[in-house]
Amino acid sequence: MTGRFAPSPTGEMHLGNVLAALLSWLSAKQQGGAWRLRIEDLDPQRSRQEYADRLMRDLEWLGLLWDGEVIYQSQRTDIYDQYLRQLQAYTYFCTCTRNEILAAQAPHESDGRIVYPGTCRNRHIQSAKAAIRLIVPNENIEYDDRIYGHQSVNLATHCGDFILRRSDGVFAYQLAVVVDDALSGVTEIVRGRDLLLSAAQQLYLYRLLDFTPPTYCHHPLLINEQGQRLCKRDQSLAVSAMRTRYTAPEVIGRLAHIAGLIPEPVPLTPEQLLPQFAWSKVPAHDITVTNQNNAI
Ligand code: GLU
Ligand code: ZN
Q1: Helix or strand holding residue 154 (H, E)
Q2: CB atoms < 10 A from the CB of 238, how many?
Q3: What is the CATH number of domain 79-173?
Q4: Structural domain boundaries of the chain?
Q5: Which atom from ligand 1 is nearest to the alpha carbon of 190?
Q6: Which of 31, 86, 112, 158 counts the most CB atoms within 10 A of its CB?
């Protein structure tokens, strides 16, 4: 059994990242598995080595130690290229701009999602500067999530043919995550529920590439009292800010408490928390971080 934590080094590590790291670590270690660290630095515009370095120092400080070498996605473009070529029969080039896609979009897609209408499918564009899209089937992808239960997602209506490589040559998260998790033997994926439906895109790629799919455990998000998702802009929730005021066991204990794992927010190391971890304790609803209960 192998779990992983796959942060994007686009800012300071904050409490929401710590929850993903902690739950994936606990689940892997309780099953006697390995826990791997992958730095998702595919996008050179948004990623910084400095953030990756700080993130690793924060994980070490928290006592969440990974197994084996750290994987950097920025160093793996040859590998992604090789798998992209395997998918050639199912891909095509696309030169649509965002505005063209929005203009062609069916009016009912009003929840903010962009569903690509397939405009370039039959255009037979050949251009190194075009994006590459994957043709998706008009069928439901079925899977089970440990917390959110059975999911059934039709990719044709959920996202349409999705991007595997951007027009600037940057590989898409959806392709890289599948290739990396499969090649590093990851069997269980724990991450925030914002990626719950992305699993359908990923499972379709597992099928096309003939990889064994992992199990999925999406966890609730941390939200503030206004119901907004905590984000990297909330400076006080950055691990670096918490380090100046708390010990690592205090941060772990408070987070474990608000995540439902322990009845009182007592200081604990991740190791000490292990016997008390159970997925059945983790709620499906998002977790409000208030001044009373938070780790700051
Ligand atoms: N890199 C993503 C993030 O930091 C997580 C992707 C994943 O766990 O699959 O939100
Ligand atoms: Zn197009």
Answers
A1: strand 149-154
A2: 20
A3: 3.40.50.620
A4: 2-75+220-288, 79-173
A5: 8
A6: 158
